[in-house]
Each structure stands twice: as C-alpha cells, then as structure tokens.
C-alpha cells in the first residue's frame, strides 16, 4: 500500500482502517490484538477521539480500568461533546466502585439533546432540586459559623 506523505486524508484512512480492524478483533474476543491496532491508529492520528474511546473499551474489558479511564479522558479532551466516551467513562468509574456527581440547572429528563439512555442512567441516581436559600437561613448559617470561630479562638 502506497501512502502519499503529503496527503493527510490518506493517513486518516489508514488510521481509520487500524481502528476498524481493532473493532473487528475486539468483537472476536481478541482484545490484545485489538489494543495493538488501536495503538497503530493512534500512532498515525493521535487526535482520533473514536480510537481513544475504543481503546478505553478494550482496556476496560481487560480489567485495566485506570488505563481505560485515561483513554476516555483523552477522547473527551479531543472531542468534549463525545457522549459515548462520557457514558463509557461513567461505566468504568462505577465498575471501580466510585460515585459520580453531575450538576445541571434542570432534571435529567429536561435536558435537551441528551440521549434517552443517558437521561435514564442519570435518573437512576439521587436527583436533588436545590433552591436558593432565603435570608433567614443564610443569616443562621453565618451566625453558626461565627459562634464556632469564636469558640476556636
């Protein structure tokens, strides 16, 4: 196969081919070979978010959760709106026994543009509606803090 070193698109196609080969090998259960091909794709195109995400999936399947999370984070640093990488990173964190805290200005079901499976996953957790405090509550908190500070001095 001949690649024109000046043609970036041909290099992208080669990286994509390695990524796709990695996906096929992963489906066949040949995870280590899949990782090798994802590495080849990333050596050619380091900013290939999908290959980083696929690498994370393979590493997660191998039980290398810390490395998988790093791969998902790299994918997200390249493509911040990559929902699949967020989903996969969340699964890896949960598999590690960690908790995830997400804040938003509305309930999960009311977030436009969010896939239904993500809305459903977010709704499984504890959803809390926090309202601004009133004057009396803020004053009470400040008074309690002032009393604690006076006791410490």
What are its keywords?
153 residues; mainly alpha; 7 helices
Summarize the model shown:
The protein is mostly helical. The protein has seven helices and no strands.
Please describe the biggest sheet, giving its number of strands, its sense, and whether it closes into a barrel.
none
Portion of residues within helices: 55-70%
Residue stretches low in confidence (pLDDT < 50, at least 5 long) are: none
Q: What structural class do you assign from the helix and strand content? A: mainly alpha
Shape: elongated
Q: What series of H and E elements makes up the topology?
A: HHHHHHH
- Measured by DSSP, the beta-strand proportion falls in under 5%
Task: Please count the beta strands (DSSP E, at least 2 residues each).
Answer: 0
Mean pLDDT: 91
* Multimerization status: single chain
Our count of helices gives 7
Question: How large is the radius of gyration?
Answer: 23 Å
Describe the structure.
This protein is an all-alpha fold and 153 residues long. The protein contains 7 helices and no strands. Helix 4 runs antiparallel to helix 5. The longest helix is centred in the first third of the chain and has 20 residues.
């Amino acid at each position: 196969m001949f690649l024109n070193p000046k043609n970036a698109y041909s290099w992208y196609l080669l990286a994509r081919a390695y990524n796709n080969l990695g996906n096929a090998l992963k489906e066949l259960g040949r995870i280590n070979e899949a990782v090798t091909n994802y590495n080849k794709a990333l050596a050619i195109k380091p900013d290939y978010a999908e290959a980083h995400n696929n690498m994370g999936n393979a590493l997660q399947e191998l039980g290398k959760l810390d490395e998988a999370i790093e791969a998902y984070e790299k994918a997200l640093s390249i493509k911040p709106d990559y929902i699949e990488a967020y989903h996969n990173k969340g699964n890896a964190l949960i598999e590690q026994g960690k908790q995830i805290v997400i804040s938003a200005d509305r309930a999960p079901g009311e977030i436009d543009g969010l896939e239904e499976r993500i809305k459903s996953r977010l709704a499984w957790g504890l959803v809390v509606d926090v309202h601004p405090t009133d004057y009396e509550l803020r004053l009470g908190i400040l008074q309690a803090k002032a009393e604690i500070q006076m006791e410490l001095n």
